[in-house]
Each structure stands twice: as C-alpha cells, then as structure tokens.
Design goal:
heterodimer; A: about 260 residues; alpha/beta; 6-stranded mixed sheet; 5-stranded mixed sheet; 6 helices; 11 strands; globular; B: about 190 residues; Transcription Regulator spoIIAA; 2 domains; 4-stranded mixed sheet; elongated
C-alpha cells in the first residue's frame, strides 16, 4: 500500500507535464506488449494521482495490430471516471485496429494532442497561488507561508500543519538538490489541496527508505524529508516537465473516502 | 534564542522557526555546557514551525547532552512539533516521559514530585488540558491518514476489479459469438 506515484518512463513511453496548464501528456510509441502494458498502466495511474486537469495519451505512435491495448485504455477510462472525476483522460491519435474497439461512455478520444488541448479550455480551479523563487534557503519560508495563507483564506485551517511541513520539505529539497529557481504552487482541486514545487533539473527524486541497521533515528538519515512527505500527504509523486520536473503532494480536504 | 541558567539547569528558549533555513546557517542550538550544568531544558513553547532539519538540530543537542551525562528536556512542545515527532516516530526520543512537565519554575521541573502550590497546580491542570487537546488533534489526524490509506487500497482494487470485469465481458462476448450460427458477414477480430 503505497502513496508514492513516480511515473515510469521507458524507450516506448514518455511523460511530460505542463505545469501551468495542469495537463500531463503521455506518449506511447512502438509495439504493444506486456512490458509496455505494465509501464503504461503504472504511469497513467501515477499521472491521474496528481489530480491534473487532464491526462492526454498520445497513441499515434503505437503499433498494436492485435488491438491488445484496448483493455488497458478501457480500464484507464473507467478508473478515471470512478476515482478522479475532476480529471479527464483523452486518448489521442488512436489508429486502427484499436479505435473501433474503443467504446463506452467513459472513453474520450481526439484526433491529436493539439486537438485535445484546444478542447480542454481553461483550468477550472479558481483557487491557485504561485510564486517563482530563487534557489536559496529562504525560499522554503516563503513557500510555506504561501501554503499557510492559502489554507486560511480557503477556510482549511485544519490543513495548515501538514501543508506547511510538506511545502517546506519539497521546497528545501528543490533548493538543496536542483540549485535552480523554483516555482511553488498551491491550488485547490476539488477534494484535495494540491502542493507542488517545480525546479529546472530533470532528475526525478527517489524515495530512500531508512536503513534499519544503522543506529540512531531514521530522521537523521538521508531522505527523511521525502519520507516525511509520504507520511504527511495523501499522495505524492514527481513528473517530468517540458522544462525540469515537478514534485507534488496532495492533502485530502476531508478525511472521508472520495466517493465515486 | 535566549539562554539562561539557574543553578545546575541551563534553559534555552527557542522561538519562531527552527527549520532548513535557520539550520542552514549553522547549528543554532549551541549548548554552552559547563561542568556545573547537569540539566538542559529547551523551551519550545514559542516555537512556531519546525521541519526535519530543525528536528535533527534538536536530536543533535539531545545527543550532545547525553554524551556529557546531562539530562535533556523539551518544554512546552506545541501541536506543530508533536505532529512532526509523531510523523517521524521521534516522540519517545524527544518528548519522552518528561513531556508532561511544563511549569515555569525551571528547577521545579526536575525536583521529585511534592505538594504543589495552588497556582502551580492550576497551571499543571491547564497544561494537561492543552496536552489532551493536542493528543485529540493528533488522534484525529491519524484517523484521517488511516482513512486515506484505506481509500488508496480500494483505488488499487477498483483498477483490478474493472480489469477483471472487462476481461470477463470479453470472454462472454467471445463465447456468445462462437455459439451463433456461422454467418458470412462475420469477420475475425
């Protein structure tokens, strides 16, 4: 049971997140086989966990003569409709023989990624705050103040403790490891508070489990910041962006289950 | 940050934020231990925000103290710090058995329990109430996290169930097709 959602890329699957538009594009190329199916299922779920505006799956480069990928796209569409109603999943550039076999009310298709994006329109969330900050320790202070203020203004004082911690750790990590400017964003996306920090290096974070054999508290070992984010957040993950990457975390606004 | 000592007790008051940006400039909690000091109390009642870096600084101070045979006590931990120690499993280490002590007399915190003055007892009752509130807050947050984790397990199960569902449907459709009389307009998939 894991709330970490790190996308898996491969030679046949690439992920690109558009930070400003809150849209993630998944490019699937090459021949469909069980390996690609595993990577695709995992990565689509990881993209959806981030609660984006939309996930656009570009299938124009997919070779699937036996239409075996149909099952995966159907599952993905139903899963989106049931579990991430605020997000849209659009399959783009779907060719024969897959396209005629995609049916069902949950399936959305478009001729191309460009067409899908044009159809999407603007981001629906009105509550969103963003700051670009230089790579220095003070960025963590500003970022967590951003999160705290947002929680108060949006009437979610009960999330302040967790939001400040998560935002501070994500920002501190970016400052420490990326060394580039960072962009901190807080937004309210339906049932979750979304916290994210973009930096301009490509390397995705790795969660390092603490070494049980080493003496002392796990907090003193490398990777404690992300381990804390994992504990404090509902979900967290990282996505490659066109420029750099984003590390994100969500906090459920209320403690109950998200009803489908 | 302020430090003063009363007899064998050194009291360090930490206020504001104890975090990545303050620790980055160097260890802020310099513990001026002299041979006369037998007890160190870190007063964190005015601590607003603490993160992993700040926690590490506190742990380092504790380590320094125990290394010198000096007791280490955190006084007045608020909800923010308790939340962090809870999430990092350091509550026992940092807050331990002394967590309930929070009177204003520094040496009183370390004396054996005796008859308390009326105002002292009131203060202790207030502090115990505040602690109870904090614990309730933590319990609520724990329930919240538990509910979210159950939700995620269910999400994974949903994906698998939907997959199985669709697979069964396809099988059913296949069987249904095979049972129909041969028709020249049928095509193989």
């Amino acid at each position: 049971m894991d709330n970490s959602f790190l996308v898996r890329e491969s030679d046949r699957l690439r992920v690109r997140h558009d930070f400003d538009a809150a849209v993630t594009e998944v490019f699937v190329r090459g021949s469909w086989d069980p390996g690609l199916r595993t990577v695709a299922a995992h990565s689509v779920r990881a993209c959806l966990a981030e609660c984006p505006r939309a996930v656009l799956v570009d299938l124009s480069g997919l070779s699937d003569p036996a239409a075996e990928s149909v099952a995966t796209w159907h599952t993905a569409a139903r899963y989106t409709a049931a579990r991430c109603p605020a997000s849209e999943l659009i399959l783009c550039g779907v060719a024969e023989p897959v396209r005629p076999r995609l049916d069902g009310a949950e399936i959305q298709t478009a001729g191309s990624v460009r067409e899908a994006r044009a159809r999407l329109g603007r981001v629906p969330w009105t509550q969103r705050r963003q700051l670009r900050l230089p790579s220095e320790p003070g960025a963590a202070v500003t970022a967590r103040s951003l999160a705290e203020d947002a929680c108060h203004v949006w009437d979610m004082a009960h999330l302040v403790t967790a939001a400040r911690l998560v935002m501070s750790e994500l920002t501190a990590n970016a400052v420490e490891h990326a060394g580039t400017d960072v962009v901190a964003v807080v937004s309210l996306r339906g049932p979750v508070l979304h916290l994210a920090v973009q930096d301009f290096t490509a390397r995705l974070p790795q969660l390092i489990e603490h070494d049980l054999d080493r003496p002392g508290s796990p907090v003193e070992q490398r990777g404690a910041g992300l381990r804390l984010v994992r504990r404090a957040a509902t979900a967290w993950g990282a996505l490659p962006c066109v420029e750099g990457k984003v590390v994100w975390a969500t906090l459920a606004v209320d403690g109950g289950r998200n009803e489908s | 940050m302020a430090a003063h000592h009363a007899g064998s007790v050194l009291i360090i008051t930490v206020a504001g934020d104890l975090a990545f940006e303050t620790v980055a400039a160097g260890d802020p909690i310099t513990v001026a231990l002299t041979p006369a000091i037998r007890h160190v109390v870190i007063d964190v009642a005015e601590l607003d925000f603490v993160d992993v870096a700040g926690l590490r600084a506190l742990l380092r101070t504790r380590h320094t103290c125990t290394g010198h045979g000096v007791t280490f006590t955190l006084r007045g931990p608020g909800a923010s710090l308790r939340c962090l120690t809870d999430l990092t499993d350091t509550t026992g280490l940092l807050l331990g058995a002394d967590a309930d002590l929070g009177t204003d007399q520094p040496s009183a915190a370390l004396q054996p329990p005796g008859p308390a003055t009326p105002s002292g007892r009131e203060q202790q009752l207030d502090e115990r109430e505040a602690l109870a509130d904090d614990r309730e807050l933590l319990a609520d947050e724990r329930d919240h996290l538990l509910a979210e984790r159950q939700d995620r397990v269910a999400a994974h199960q949903d994906w698998e169930d939907i997959r199985e569902d669709l697979a069964n449907q396809r099988e059913h459709n296949l069987e249904h097709r095979e049972q129909r009389p041969p028709n020249s307009r049928d095509h193989d998939c």
